[in-house]
């Protein structure tokens, strides 16, 4: 199986450095909302094996930020513990942050962020995720339309979204996202930004939108096309 990481990593905007400090375990049940939550936690997207959470209105005075997860009603587990410096804290308080649970187990998951300043603690809202296997990887077919375009086709439910990646094999550039659609893709995309004699590869991942956030499949196998020479 082709590893999806080099293709899907383009949607991650921040890498958090974590510490192993012990922390007091919160009670994450989802039954009782956090009192005066200091931040709002939502689901940004689901990747093949990971969940991306979006945190807004971060507590600007926080010294550490902890991400906790509960699985199927079990006890909360600390999965990230981030120590802030002043510059990072100010930036994150201004624009928010994406948090990645890179090893999310299937089941009913509850997440909550805890901020700590000395002996004080504040909490985000709790978000619930019903985490199940994602859609199957699509089968991609390519057709070169002369020197001006490449037509991509794949099978997927009409209501699903998609993300299309392309790699230029002559320049050796990293894969780039050509389009990301959160509505129906209809299993069709036309790439008109190609050059005569070019050599390109493509991958497509589809996304199930029925759960309120895009749940991406594994990307399709990398598929290649050579553009004909010009006149």
Beta fraction: 35-45%
N-end to C-end Cα span: 39 Å
Which structural class do you get from the secondary structure elements? mainly beta
- In the predicted model, the low-confidence regions spanning at least 5 consecutive residues are 1-24
The CATH architecture of the largest domain would be Sandwich
Helix run count: 2
Shape by Cα distribution:
elongated
Number of domains: 2
**How would a crystallographer describe the biggest sheet?**
5 strands, antiparallel
Helix content: under 10%
Mean pLDDT reading: 82
**How many DSSP E strands?**
16
The topology string of helices and strands comes to HEEEEHEEEEEEEEEEEE
Relevant CATH superfamily of the largest domain: Immunoglobulins
Query: In angstroms, what is the radius of gyration?
Result: 21 Å
CATH topology heading of the largest domain? Immunoglobulin-like
